[in-house]
Amino acid sequence: MINFVEIEDHVQLADYATFIQLFDAVHALRSTAQTLVHHLQGRTVWMINSTAQGGGVAEMLPKVVVILRELGVRTEWVVMGTEEVEFFSITKRIHNLIHNFGDAGFNADDRALYEKVSREVASELIEYIHPEDIVVIHDPQPLGVGAELKRRIGMRAIWRCHIGFDETTLATESAWGFLKPYASVFDHAVFSVPDYIPSYLKDKSSIIYPALDPLSHKNRELSAHKLVGILCNAGLMIDHHPVLTPHWENQAMRLQPDGTFVPPKAGYDVGLLYRPIITQVSRWDRLKGWKPLLEGFLRLKRWVGPSRDNQTRRERRIAILRLILAGPDPAAVQDDPQGQEVLEELCALYRQLAPWEQESVALLTLPMISRKENALMVNAIQRCSTVVVQNSIREGFGLTATEAMWKRVPVLGTSTCGIRIQVRHGMEGLITQDPEDPEEIAEHLDYMLSDPLARDMWGRSGQRQVHHHFLVFTQVREWLHRLVDVAGMPPY
Question: For domain 2-211+471-486, which architecture applies?
Answer without folding.
Answer: 3-Layer(aba) Sandwich (3.40)
